[in-house]
């Protein structure tokens, strides 16, 4: 899981699959950013092929607590149609802002 930090903002780049086998790594990365004073987190999903309920749950649970502490988070570049569909079905896009950027 790659991440870039710039000032008090950071981007985490998700790749491949996020599921029960590695969703704890995502949780740990998010918590580490918050503990280090990062106030804005962007999760880039341009190379994400699959996410299950454990991955979505980690993102949502973190976001709800992070928001209470004054942090903000966005999901960026949800390109995979199946990932996009799952996010829409569980209405995560109604809770966490989803934005598309051209990263070509």
Low-confidence stretches: none
Which structural class fits the helix and strand makeup? Answer: alpha/beta
Q: Give helix % range.
A: 25-40%
Topology, number of strands: 5
Describe the structure.
- This protein is an alpha/beta fold and 104 residues long.
- Helices cover 37% and strands 33% of the residues.
- It has three helices and five strands.
- It has helices at 23-35, 53-68, 81-89, and strands spanning 2-6, 9-18, 40-51, 72-76, 98-99.
- Strands 1-2-3-4-5 form a five-stranded mixed beta sheet.
- Helix 1 (23-35) links the parallel strand 2 and strand 3 (40-51).
- Helix 1 runs parallel beside helix 2 (53-68).
- The longest helix is centred in the middle third of the chain and has 16 residues, at 53-68.
Topology (elements, then pairings):
Blueprint: E1 2-6, E2 9-18, H1 23-35, E3 40-51, H2 53-68, E4 72-76, H3 81-89, E5 98-99
Helix pairs in contact: 1-2
């Amino acid at each position: 899981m790659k991440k870039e930090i710039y000032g008090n903002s950071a981007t985490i780049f998700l790749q491949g699959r996020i599921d029960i086998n590695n969703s704890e790594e995502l949780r740990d990365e998010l918590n580490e950013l918050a503990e280090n004073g990062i106030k804005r987190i962007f999760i880039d999903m341009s190379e994400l092929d699959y996410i299950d309920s454990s991955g979505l749950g980690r993102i949502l649970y973190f976001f709800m607590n992070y928001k209470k502490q004054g942090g903000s988070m966005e999901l960026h570049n949800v390109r995979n149609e199946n990932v996009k569909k799952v996010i829409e079905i569980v209405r995560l896009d109604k809770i966490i802002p989803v934005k598309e950027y051209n990263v070509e």
